[in-house]
Amino acid sequence: MLCDSPVASHKKRTNLSIDSQLLHEAKLLGINVSQSAEAGLAQAVKLQKQQRWLQENSEAIESSNDFVAQHGLPLAKYRHF
Fold first, then answer.
1. Are 45 and 37 in contact (CB under 8 A)?
2. d(CA 53, CA 51)
3. Is this model's pTM higher than 0.85 or not?
4. Taking the alpha carbons of 11, 15, 18, 22 in that order, is the dihedral positive or negative?
5. How far, rounded to the nearest angstrom, does the alpha carbon of residue 32 sit from its chain's CA centroid?
6. b/e map 47-75, b = 16+ CB within 10 Å
7. What is the distance between the alpha carbons of residues 57 and 65, in angstroms, rounded to a whole number?
8. For the purposes of burial, counting CB atoms within 10 Å of the CB of 37, is it exposed (0-12), middle (13-18) or buried (19 or more)?
9. Residue-wise pLDDT tens digits, 2-45
């Protein structure tokens, strides 16, 4: 039975293959497997997006770092710390 709440409407049923011993232990410990899987997947997506962004912007980052190495920080004379 599906819930009519806004959160449930964005959920999608899926099948996962999970190590049976790990699943058994999680159930014994009262761990919500769906929430844990979703949290782990969200973290993996976040890390992958960060890695891709760094890769896609590596030239600009390197260029900026080279500029600072050669010329110092822009507006450094206005820093009071």
1. no
2. 5
3. no
4. positive
5. 20
6. eeeeeeeeeeeeeeeeeeeeeeeeeeeee
7. 12
8. middle
9. 455 555 568 899 999 999 999 999 999 999 999 999 999 999 99
